[in-house]
Write a structure and sequence with these properties.
Layout: H1 3-7, H2 15-31, E1 39-43, H3 49-54, E2 60-65, H4 68-80, E3 86-90, E4 103-109, H5 118-128, E5 129-140, H6 161-171, E6 174-186, E7 189-199
Parallel strand pairs: 1-2, 1-4, 2-3, 4-5
Antiparallel strand pairs: 5-7, 6-7
Helix pairs in contact: 5-6
């Protein structure tokens, strides 16, 4: 079990996390036209906070996560609300491979800083998209470590937006845009979150 398995049951109860979800969804919708033709991938889906908000507007979504506990909570939600256009996949970005040329949209919220090899994941995201597919992720701008404190599953203290843009360009993305979309307020400080967009 990993840390996220242990906290899965209470994950959705955080007002800060709910507000974060609202802000990420707002930024995603302002950049991407969600339609019933879209086959989407939600990387680091967790309990599906973002996925549940996107699901009604697209054809289908696959939620990828490396925590079985989180995916179990998501599966319970899908059953409860009789949602049948979602699949889940237990997936470790540092070991597993995403399917190629399958998705029209790859999105993710606050998950990339948990992955060791960011460049590899962005390359995988690019490969998973069909031609014309769109990429949108939200994550922390570089911070001093006070956002998470001591946490062994955090491999990046946020990202420099210009460096992240270079990683996207290296993977083959075009029309790249990285900008701050909102701030998270915690007792330990104010933490900007950026949105990164690209097209295949």
């Amino acid at each position: 079990m990993n840390r996220f398995d242990n906290v899965a049951a209470e994950w959705d109860d955080s007002p800060r996390r709910q507000n974060m979800t609202k802000n990420i969804i707002s930024a995603l919708k302002s950049k991407i036209n969600l339609t019933e033709k879209i086959e989407a991938a939600d990387f680091g889906t967790g309990t599906g906070l973002l996925l549940i908000q996107v699901q009604p507007f697209v054809k289908n979504i696959t939620g990828f996560d490396n925590s079985k506990g989180m995916l179990d909570i998501l599966s319970e939600k899908l059953k409860k609300f009789e949602i049948n256009n979602v699949e889940t996949s237990l997936f470790d970005a540092d070991k597993d491979k995403m399917p190629e040329n399958k998705f029209d949209l790859f999105f993710s919220g606050m998950a990339f800083h948990h992955v060791v090899d960011t460049q590899n994941l962005i390359i995988q995201a690019f490969s998973s998209l069909k031609k014309g597919g769109e990429f949108f992720i939200a994550d922390l701008v570089t911070e001093d470590g006070s956002f998470h404190g001591e946490s062994p599953d955090v491999h990046h203290l946020g990202f420099d937006m210009s460096e992240f843009s270079k990683l996207m360009k290296n993977a083959g993305f075009e029309n790249i845009e990285c900008k701050v979309i909102f701030e998270i307020e915690k007792e330990s400080g104010h933490f900007p979150v950026f949105g990164a967009y690209g097209k295949k």
